[in-house]
Amino acid sequence: MDILTTIAERKIGEAIRRGELDNLALKGQPIRVEDLSDIPEELRMGYKILKNAGVLPAELQLNREILTLRDLIESCNDTEERRELKKRLTAKQLHYDILMEKNFASPAYKCYEGRIREKLGL
Q: Domain total for the chain?
């Protein structure tokens, strides 16, 4: 065992003896392990930080807004409001398309394109 593991084990043992770990929120429950195998190893930590903070990537946020606007248009009976919603939808769709085009031209995409195609079976 290396020195850091030894120190960590010692500190955990001391905390257990003092009862500092008795009232943890999820005590006794199994740990849910996320499958992050689809995310490149060097991007996983950033992904976890953003996910835990509730932050969506811009393209997913735009996609969510596009779907919401489509639903609103579908249920809208007012002609003027429907026209305004369609304008907003067009702007969001254009922004999304530009963002996706930019993403596909990025060095990161080019680096992982092979893995992405392999995962998708292309």
A: 1
**Angular region, 38: left φ>0, alpha ψ -120 to 50, beta rest:** alpha
CA distance 4 to 29: 27
- d(C-alpha 39, C-alpha 47), whole Å: 8
pTM score, whole prediction? 0.54
Q: Domain range holding 81?
A: 57-122
Which tens digit of pLDDT belongs to each residue from 59-103? 888 999 999 999 999 999 999 999 999 999 999 999 998 888 887
| Residue at 96 is within a domain | yes
Residue 113 is assigned to a structural domain of this protein = yes
Contacts of 116 (CB under 8 A, 6+ apart): 109
